[in-house]
Amino acid sequence: MLGAIAGDIIGSIYEHSPIKTRDFPLFAPNCRFTDDTVLTIAVARAILDGTGYLENLREFGRRYPDAGYGGTFRRWLLADDPRAYHSWGNGSAMRVSPVGFAFDTPEKVLEEARKSAVVTHDHPEGIKGAQATALAVFLARTGHGRQEIRRQIGESFGYDLGRSLDAIRPGYGFDVSCQGTVPEAIIAFLESDSYEDAVRNAISLGGDSDTLACIAGGIAEAFYGGIPAGIRDRALVLLPDDLRSVTETFCARFPPAASTSG
Predict the structure, then answer these.
(1) Which of 152, 165, 254, 256 could cross-link to 101 by cystine, CB 3.0-4.6 Å?
(2) Residues sharing a CB contact under 8 Å with residue 24, sequence separation 6 or more, in sequence order
(3) Contact criterion met (CB below 8 Å) for 58 and 98
């Protein structure tokens, strides 16, 4: 899960100033955590405590009202009677990585990913994006290789994962949909040879950079058995105490296994 948070922070400054290169400094001075991090930690706390996804998303979202939420989600946060709003946006996928780390069967991962999504994103594409991301994290941390991850996710969700980043990058732009974000983020991971490489790949597409890097970063953390200590420490120091505490507790309880995948 910390890989998703670090990806969000690293990508945060490029969300509205997209770049088409892998050559950029990690953790620029104005990098910050965004709604991707806040809601990822909310999902993690729900899992740790066995409490509801809806309640935790609302609690953490209201605690950090200026994290960068979309308008519809913000209205959901403040509503007296919050109801799902049939969204296909990538918010369901950006926050779901803890599910892939915490649960031990594909069936349970898919069900929990659905539960975490439908409180807001009950459109089929919103659910699918969350499930594909969580399952990719699960497969990555349980020893599956890149080609098996590509095959299973592609066959299960109908995503075209046979494209290359070089083919995607020239015509790719800002896209907040699950269907226009999740496959590209997974491809960014599939073409990587390290955690940092996956994050750089995702940001270099020039789209919704923090979310692309958040999704790719969570999968890469699971696949490579963690993230480099320097990246880990820098990400943690940028979190306020309450967010850092949940993150450290979750990562201690559900650590990524050392990867032997190829």
Answers:
(1) 254
(2) 14, 200, 203
(3) no
Task: Count other Cβ atoms within 10 Å, centred on residue 21.
Answer: 10
Confidence of residue 259 (pLDDT cuts 50, 70, 90): low
Please say whether the beta carbons of 30 and 235 come within 8 A.
no
C-alpha distances out from residue 239 to 5, 6, 8, 38, 226, Å: 10, 10, 12, 10, 18
Per-residue pLDDT at 257 = 76
Q: Which residues contact 107 (CB under 8 A, 6 or more apart)?
A: none
Question: Which CATH fold would you assign to the domain 2-253?
Answer: ADP-ribosylglycohydrolase fold (1.10.4080)
